[in-house]
């Protein structure tokens, strides 16, 4: 799974990287984060048709991490939907609907994963079980490019708010995961599905149907590197460049 990631690149740099036409103010002003956690506001790249002209434009917007289905009674369910397995997208009602028409890219500078390490009891110790620790890794693209995680987004209407309340709509997102690449499988068996640039247009295009979109979710072609980092990322209170610094 992907439970923490880093997104510290400047919004204008992302706009240039993804050929953004509309840069929303909240996306431009969102501060950098080296420790993005579930329910945090995050940047997403979407394509939607303008209501007045029908023109499809690409924009950088903000969504809450953790998808809230349109039929949910409250937004709290989103905390359990930060990831969506690529293999079962069409089998889950919460993901099948947005997969058909509301796909997005989630820009990231890298993500964190933890390797489980078991240390046997020392000779003569009274302990019967091994000591379990978890070593965090920062996993990022090989090179200066940004990672584009395949994602979905959804709209949820708060029934407790008036029709003229600008905050009545919540936009939320989830990151699609797949089997880990062989070089990363020793750390964790899952990883975010990173789309190569030549697949961005088709993935974002709302006119592309679910069958064609499913064909884009193949083994990741973007090479990722892993480096051990300090356990600072374990606490959401820590947030700074030192989190991604290799040990």
Automatic annotation (TrEMBL):
UniProt keyword annotation of Lyase present: yes
Keywords: Covalent protein-DNA linkage, DNA damage, DNA-binding, Hydrolase, Lyase, Protease
Entry annotated with the keyword Kinase: no
Record Pfam families: SRAP
Record-linked InterPro entries: SRAP, SRAP-like
First and last residue of the signal peptide: none
GO BP, sorted A to Z: protein-DNA covalent cross-linking repair; proteolysis
Record-level Gene Ontology MF annotations: lyase activity; peptidase activity; single-stranded DNA binding
Enzyme Commission number(s) of this protein: 3.4.-.-
Enzyme class: hydrolase
Family: Belongs to the SOS response-associated peptidase family.
Protein name: Abasic site processing protein
Species of origin: Oerskovia douganii
């Amino acid at each position: 799974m992907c439970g923490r990631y880093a997104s510290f690149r400047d919004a204008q740099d992302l706009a240039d990287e993804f050929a953004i036409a509309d840069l929303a103010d909240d996306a431009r002003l969102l501060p950098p984060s080296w420790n993005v956690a579930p329910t945090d506001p995050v940047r997403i790249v979407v394509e939607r048709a303008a209501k007045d002209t029908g023109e499809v434009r690409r924009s950088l917007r903000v969504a809450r991490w953790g998808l809230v289905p349109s039929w949910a009674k409250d937004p709290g369910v989103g905390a359990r939907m930060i990831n969506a397995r690529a293999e079962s997208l069409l089998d889950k009602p919460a993901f099948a609907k947005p997969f058909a028409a509301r796909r997005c890219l989630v820009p990231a500078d890298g993500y964190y994963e933890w390797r489980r390490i078991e240390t046997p009891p020392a000779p003569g110790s009274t302990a019967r079980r091994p000591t379990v620790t978890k070593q965090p890794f920062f996993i990022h693209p090989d090179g200066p490019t940004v990672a584009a995680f395949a994602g979905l987004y959804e709209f949820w209407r708060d029934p407790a708010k008036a029709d003229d309340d600008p905050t009545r709509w919540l936009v939320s997102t989830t990151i699609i995961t797949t089997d880990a690449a062989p070089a990363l499988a020793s750390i964790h068996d899952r990883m975010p599905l990173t789309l190569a640039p030549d697949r961005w247009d088709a993935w974002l295009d709302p006119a592309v149907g679910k069958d064609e979109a499913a064909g884009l979710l193949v083994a990741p072609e973007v090479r990722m590197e892993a480096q051990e980092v300090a356990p600072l990322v374990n606490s959401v209170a820590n947030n700074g460049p030192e989190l991604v610094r290799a040990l």
